[in-house]
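Bench log. Compound arrived from synthesis this morning; before running ITC I wanted a structural hypothesis for how magnesium ion sits in the protein. Inputs:
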Amino acid sequence: MNTQLPNDPSLRLVREMLRIRMVEEAIAREYPKGEMRCPTHLSVGQEAVAVGTAAALERTDPAVSTHRAHAHYLAKGGDLKRLLAELFGKEAGCARGRGGSMHLIDLDVGFEGSTAIVGSTLPVGVGLALGIRVRAEAAVACIFLGDGAMEEGVFYESANFAVVRKLPALFICENNSYSVYSPLTKRQPHGRQIHDVVRALGLTTAAHDGNDVFGVAAAVKTAVQAIRDGGSPVFLEFSTYRHLEHCGPYPDDNLGYRPEKDVAAWKARDPIVQAQERLRDHPGFSGEVIERWRSEIAAEIDGAFAFARTAPWPDPSTRAEYVYA
Ligand SMILES: Cc1ncc(C[n+]2csc(CCOP(=O)(O)OP(=O)(O)O)c2C)c(N)n1
Ligand SMILES: [Mg+2]
């Protein structure tokens, strides 16, 4: 567990983004050794959406996510050792080593699951919101999705049900402009905005900069409060950008499917660098603080990798347990 968090909320946001970045950079570094035998989709560059959103949620608010889930799982408080053990296929993994990177779960912190099938957690999240309503609880169900997932039929069914039943559902759309190699400009008509489409379905919507962690946290906080106060479901679209390839540990800018000037512009707007610049004169923040965080986090990551590497494999005789066939 992460035991050295600063009390100051702004510092916590930056430290948590740095922690997630360092975890994913460590995964990228270790991945080519071939010990993690699952496909892995990294969120490097997109950390602000996960961290800003989770900061505005309670531990008891359930969340579901996608194939690109490490950041959401960790920001929600998911256990790092169990994440890495899952990537190594070990019994101590959060899905007992059966799921790999795309099937993360930590019920202790309300992280109710992620799956590899794009869009498949949307109705699960809406179902969680229905459960909250039926039990008359004050929680909000958070549903992370990518820009590609809103193009699937299941999104419209799920969003419509949430609106008709006025469910406490918060859709967080990470719009990184791409579904694998396909840009939004090739997938949707010129000028169409995702949040405009969703507003037409009856959800309350807004679009924000997804690389500004403070702006994300503020926007999600407002939305969560409105939902808890009995408002309609909310859909927040956050524009952001992934730095690495769609699936795997490497950059893939050599493929040329993203304009070089876009890649450079987004990298110049790195969410962690931007947040650090914003905090330059903030009490308690300094270069030394960042360096201390770096060494604390590096030690935590080393320990978690050692745990994952040395943890036992699942017993082969249990291979049919905890899976559906
Ligand atoms: C139903 C389904 N169709 C296609 C795929 C292959 N696929 C995996 S990730 C992905 C892209 C999804 O894009 P988006 O929702 O924007 O998420 P991002 O990868 O950008 O985070 C696709 C098409 C899949 N896993 N499931
Ligand atoms: Mg996308």
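What the model suggests: The mean pLDDT is 97. The pocket of magnesium ion (ligand 2) is lined by residues 146-148, 176, 178-179 (CB under 6 Å).
ITC booked for Thursday regardless.
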